[in-house]
Amino acid sequence: MNTPRLSAHPRHSGAPFTALFRAKSAVYLGLSLAGLVFLTGCVSLPKEAAPPKVACPEGVPAGTQCWRGQDSAGSHYLVAMPAKWSGVLVVHAHGGPSLGEPKASRADEDIKRWAITLSEGHAWAGSVFRQGGFAVTTAAEDTERVRRIFVDHVAKPQRTLLHGQSWGAMVATRAAELYPKSWEGILLTSGVVAGPTTYDFRLDLRAIYQHLCQNHPRPDEPQYPLSLGLPVGSKLTPAELATRVNDCLGVRKPAAQRSPEQARKIKTIVDVLKIPENSIAGHLNWGTFTLQDVVIKNGGASPFGNDSVKYIGSDNDAALNAAVLRFKADPQASAKFDADVNHQGRFKVPVLTTHGIGDSTVFVEGSDTLRQRMEASGNGARLVQTYVNSAEHSYLGDAIYPPLFEALLAWVNQGTKPTPAGIAARCAALRPAQAADCRFDTAYTPRPLASRIAPR
Fold this sequence. Notes:
By secondary structure, this protein is of the alpha/beta class. It folds into two domains: 15-30 and 197-338, no CATH class; 43-195 and 342-451, Rossmann fold (3-Layer(aba) Sandwich), CATH 3.40.50.1820. 39% of the residues lie in helices and 11% in strands. The protein has a nine-stranded mixed beta sheet with strand order 1-2-3-5-4-6-7-8-9, sandwiched between helices. Strand 6, helix 6 (167-178) and strand 7 (185-189) form a beta-alpha-beta unit. The radius of gyration is 22 Å and the shape is globular. Mean pLDDT is 91; it is low at 1-42.
């Protein structure tokens, strides 16, 4: 699971698209400051200007002070200081990624969702990231940059924690390995922690959906390798894609109103890919528009393939495997993508994680890959993983995070390594009237990711 997923085969008819993106590839993948980190072990970031103090966004605790600005690389950021500061800075790496031009308002959304951080007395700093779309290493650089802005211009923290949420966990793990001296503890919540393998099933979904529905693309539209997401110049919108999905599967209808054919198709997708039906449209959206963004940033070639996958779980697996379109990952694109987004578990500080067991956006089984990598790098003792009986992804509830922050800080400050049982008990003690909201499952152990996503 630690090595890049390279294929010995040439890519599947993606060559016409490669030249169109070669220039963009240099911008996205060749100019990253983190490349210097890899070669030299350090990099000198420019001194940042002091941010202006501003009115805080709605949704933060009373008495909070805020600063916002745009750093030297162009990233919008927001910094918030609670009225009574614990001395702890939490640098937040947000989920996504969001496509299109980054907007400063994204930070407002993030601090409102994570106001629990301020309620616990900790300062909060978050970058919007300079690049829209799937650019992990530059986002890690931006995360380090906002930390330095806080330290240089707001206050000197006693402790600095790095918090990665969802896709932001992918950013956080990159930042942790690129800037190991910047962080004293890492919290990963609902995180993408298994590298590129996390996303393989979305190409599987594209291939199976097209086999079943034949409308993405339609027969009268230009055909293209589905592993590209969308071809250059496509005018397809998310709303149009949603309409096509509904036309084929009836996902907007109650189950009782779907045709037998629609029900059969949905069952095939659910049984083979092990995803709930209410997540099909969202994953197809990623496998279309975000996958296109990934391909652009990898020079026009796709890092994803399904040429060796054996699909199981349908009512006729032999027929399904014979009919599904196959695509080969481009070796160079796979290597570039892996270098941008992946980690090797080389974290020298305590790492605490939590994940909803029923999360259908980022599968909980990826947590097993994180454990394997940290153990392989000699850091297994620095990892504690917790699991919550929840299908939520973006936010698991106000009760869940305070005991995690508390346990991580005790580990950092006193060397007291937490246990899942201890965190669960502390959650109930902190909120006795809402103890039912403390849904930690201390007996849960995730299966390997290969049990959820077909290996290749």
